[in-house]
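INFO batch 0412 | record 1 of 1 | parsing
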Amino acid sequence: MAVATGVLCSRAFALCMACVLLAVPLLVAQDHSNLSLEHYSKTCPNYEHVVRTEMECAVRADPRNAALMLRLHFHDCFVQGCDGSVLLDDTATLIGEKKAEQNVNSLKGFELADKIKQKLEAECPGTVSCADMLAIAARDAVVLVGGPYWDVPVGRLDSKKASLELANRDIPTAQQGLVTLISKFWEKGLDATDMVALVGSHTIGFARCANFRDRIYGDYEMTTKYSPASQPYLSKLKDVCPQDGGDDNISAMDSHTAAAFDNAYFETLVNGEGLLNSDQEMWSSVLGYSTADTVSKYWADSAAFFKQFSDSMVKMGNITNPAGGEVRKNCRFVNT
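INFO prediction complete | emitting tokens
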């Protein structure tokens, strides 16, 4: 098990995190009272059914659509808050976030978002925001592949702006170390426990070769303690992701149950077989004494993981854009 090697490591980590907390103001919801379960009770009482129906069709057609919608919601909330800015297309007067480093080659699901929004507009024109739609669709995505249900407070507004700069800065990357990752979550008002739970969504995710090449040709064997049992899987990963080329080839981040939302993903970390460096850091980093305990807990107790994941999703979903906004009629463009 990965723990701090001594008191000095523990103190260094504590000092480092103290610096992070002093340097970074927490981002909180603009006004929690603006989000409620009854926000659309009179204006669009059928909105959840509309979203659920479309998500059922999409996940039935391709289970990977669940991960796509969940990831869209994550990437939306980490830039300006949960405001639908991730869905905006570039125009002559607006540069969107779709070409950010963590979005340009891997963020998908935009056409499915368009389809759901069209159905909502037919049901209740100009009523349900794109940001709320993503939050509901992400919840339904998780439920449809075996994960937990949670109530989603709604009432978010869609931003009239996007930020490519913030997308490049704020969205965690696969190559970043544990302290950087924790600080990025802290910036959003999410603690290390929230981080481990939310990263657990990788139980249904896929990663591009470009994002795990350094891992499998780097310290992969060291984190598995050179276990012969891990060699067949490593060989398979190297077939999918050669040292040169194949950047867009993909592999499941949960090698056990890629199509099901469960806690098996945490077993891959305990075995040292995490696909992404950023994920394995939560278990193997010398600074990861607290995150390693949480990983171990969720591996042993799926109910604890499901409960914390639900709570953390609500917490993340409560991050709103302080600038406010509108309810877009088309999620790709601001209203004219």
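INFO post-check: Confidence is low (pLDDT under 50) at residues 1-30.
INFO record closed
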